[in-house]
Write a structure and sequence with these properties.
The protein is of the alpha+beta class. The protein is 48% helix and 14% strand. It has helices at 5-11, 13-20, 59-63, 74-84, 86-91, 93-106, 249-252, 254-317, 324-357, 366-370, 390-400, 402-423, 463-471, 491-558, 564-599, 602-605, 610-615; strands spanning 65-66, 69-72, 163-176, 187-202, 207-220, 230-242, 372-375, 428-441, 475-485. A six-stranded antiparallel β-sheet has the order 3-4-5-6-8-9. A hairpin with a 2-residue loop joins strand 1 and strand 2.
Length: 649
């Protein structure tokens, strides 16, 4: 039974609803011109048109700019990714491509390779000291209509669209004759015309039927024919049926069933691309937060080094310190400036990468190239983690990971395609039945010399007489038979069938490998998350101890038992500990993102609606808070007034 696209969309409403009303991608059907009727409409070139892609950014991006700064929260970044990211925009076409391949399969065409590989997503410009846990959860690879499935192996699927064919011919012929007994002329002329019409249809059962009607008229200059012109017609019905190869419905509709699976896979592909891209951009955002904090810490370290340098100069001037200490302090200032420049460079480059990920035209817009990104959210470490048995987490991840669902669907498609190669091992046996009706008519030949008796009045007439004879079946033909083709050895088909079995076994092992990898990912992510939390706690403890040491050194200095250099060194230790804490927080965010990917929770934990992702429009409005932080200073900015160290007050 043939399944139409409309019935398929009803059957797969949960999937089809994701892209049916998408404004991002659409297939428009303009009204054809008046001269294009019902029968010509399928051949109208402008019937179905795909509009050009959208290359402009959503209004949300510009609405978040104030005074040269782009203020972004985590939710705003996610919204901009769903609306503007090109990796997701490219993948939105996958369901539409899969649906068109289904239309092609329903018409009897073989599957086309239209899969769109996944893109891993952008990465940070620098991850020095930052553990990203980039194990690569999202696999690329094709699916269904591509992915290595060869649909031309085995019996060809029947062409399920009916066809109409017609041919016409007319002409004049002159034939010189040396024998005038038969036609009573030395030059036989013939004016002829022929019209033939055929309508055919193949069925999913392996049956094909053809109806052919022909009509011909022949006018000659001979006096011997009884009728001149003579009119003849035929009406023929032929039915063929495959009895071995191509007999099974499951074989003939295998491309349709695989195309239906490909529609499932294409939706999983879009969902997987959204999850992959969102996770990658979240890593960009939290790295940007880290780089901002790094700039702040390096500025503080530079200020401390500068204070040490100024203090040493004063001490040398009054003779309380050796001159070499000024040189050492100057070297420390130079190293601190270099560290600050590296931190500012990382921050500037990270902004470029993030801008490109949340916009459609990258940095082509001058205003976007010039604005600075100011993150509104800060890294927060939750007090507690989810405590569940590892086996429960693995079971949840195996059921939730989109890669596993995609592989299982493709494995099912491989089994379906193998039905065709197995059927191809059978001999080709076809049976046919043909019924033909003939008709003959024409007016009496005015040149007739009564050489062969009087014409039969039953045949006198025109086209209507011949047609009436055909309908009355006055002159019927009947035939039936079969054709059998048995190839000896049949090595090509046997090789195809064994090849499909070998590939299917490979796919089964690959699926098991992916399931095993899910277990590895979950356990690795869980260990990474626990270690990241422990490292953060250690970094916090280190910072607290450094602050306590600084406080103690300041008290010793106030008591006259310490020096400026020791206090400033303690301040530098605090800055180093703060830097380590920031990096530990960044490590935790990456570990958390990786854990969510390993569990297949990325969309769920970030409250992402696939309907909004498919539409390319997020309903939530973005609002800039009344109180916002300022952007980190970059080279060339006016420096902030220097503060005196607390120890010199």
């Amino acid at each position: 039974m043939r399944i139409s696209v409309r019935s398929l969309l009803v059957l797969f409403a949960p999937f089809a609803a994701l892209f049916a009303q998408s404004s991002e991608v659409s297939i428009q059907t303009p009204k054809p011109p008046p001269y294009v009727g019902r029968f010509l409409r399928p051949f109208h070139l402008e019937k179905r048109v795909v509009p050009p892609p959208k290359l402009a950014n959503s209004a949300r991006l510009e609405s978040l700019v104030r005074s040269g700064n782009l203020y972004l929260s985590v939710q705003d970044v996610i919204a901009l990714v769903l609306e503007n990211n090109l990796d997701i925009a490219v993948q939105r076409y996958s369901p539409f491509l899969a649906r068109e391949v289904l239309r092609r399969a329903e018409g009897g065409g073989i599957l086309r390779q239209v899969d769109t590989p996944l893109v891993a997503g952008p990465t940070s410009v620098s991850t020095a000291g930052i553990s990203t846990n980039a194990n690569g959860l999202a696999g690329g690879g094709g699916f269904g209509g591509g992915g290595g499935i060869v649909t031309a192996v085995g019996p060809n699927p029947p062409s399920l669209d009916p066809y109409f064919a017609t041919s016409a011919q007319m002409g004049h012929q002159t034939t010189p004759l040396t024998n005038t007994i038969l036609n009573q002329t030395t030059a036989l002329t013939s004016d002829f015309r022929y019209i033939g019409v055929q309508v055919g249809k193949q069925f999913i059962t392996g049956t094909s039927a053809y109806v052919t009607f022909s009509n011909s008229r022949n006018l000659v200059n001979s006096s011997t024919p009884l009728f001149n012109p003579s009119i003849s017609g035929t009406f023929d019905i032929t039915v063929n049926q495959n009895l071995l190869q191509g007999l099974s419905v499951g074989v003939n509709n295998r491309d349709i069933r695989v195309a239906r699976n490909n529609m499932k896979v294409s939706n999983l592909q879009v969902e997987l691309q959204v999850a992959t891209t969102v996770a990658a951009v979240l890593n960009l955002y939290w790295d940007l937060v880290t780089f901002n904090d790094a700039v702040r810490i390096k500025e503080k370290a530079l200020a401390t080094a500068q204070q040490l340098y100024d203090g040493n100069k004063k001490q040398v001037a009054i003779g309380a310190l050796a001159g070499i200490e000024v040189t050492r302090a100057a070297a420390d200032v130079s190293a601190s400036k270099e560290d600050l420049l590296i931190a500012q460079t990382n921050l500037a480059q990270q902004e470029i990468v993030l801008k490109n990920a949340i916009s459609r035209n990258g940095l082509e817009s001058a205003w976007l190239d010039e604005v600075r990104i100011v993150p509104l959210d800060h890294i927060e470490i939750p007090k507690t983690e989810e405590v569940r048995p590892v086996q429960d987490l693995i079971q949840e991840a195996t059921a939730s990971r989109l890669e596993i669902q995609k592989s299982r669907t493709n494995l099912e498609s491989g089994k379906i395609m193998m039905e065709g190669t197995r059927n191809g091992l059978l001999p080709s046996l076809q049976a046919f039945v043909e019924v033909t009706g003939h008709g003959l008519s024409g007016p009496a030949n005015p040149l007739y010399t009564n050489c062969c008796g009087a014409p039969n009045a039953y045949f006198l007439g025109g086209d209507g007489t011949a047609l009436a004879q055909i309908l009355r079946r006055n002159f019927p033909d009947y035939s039936a038979g079969f054709s059998l083709n048995i190839p000896f050895r049949n090595r090509s088909q046997q090789a195809d069938y064994v090849t499909d079995q070998l590939q299917q076994r490979q796919n089964e092992l690959q699926l098991q490998r992916e399931v095993n990898q899910v277990r590895v990912d979950v356990k690795t992510a869980l260990i990474g998350l626990e270690q990241a939390r422990s490292r953060h706690q250690t970094a916090v403890d280190t910072r607290v101890l450094a602050e306590q040491s600084l406080e103690a050194e300041q008290k010793r200095f106030q008591s006259g038992v310490s020096s400026v250099a020791l206090v400033i060194q303690a301040q530098k230790d605090v800055a180093t500990a703060e830097d380590g804490e920031v990096q530990a927080m960044a490590n935790y965010t990456h570990a958390r993102i990786f854990f969510d990917q390993a569990m297949g929770r990325t969309l769920q934990v970030n409250h992402i609606s696939m309907q909004e992702a498919i539409d390319g429009r997020v309903q939530r409005e973005s609002v800039i808070p009344a109180s916002v932080p300022t952007a980190a200073r970059m080279p060339g900015d006016t420096p902030a007034p220097a503060k005196k160290p607390e120890i010199l007050r």
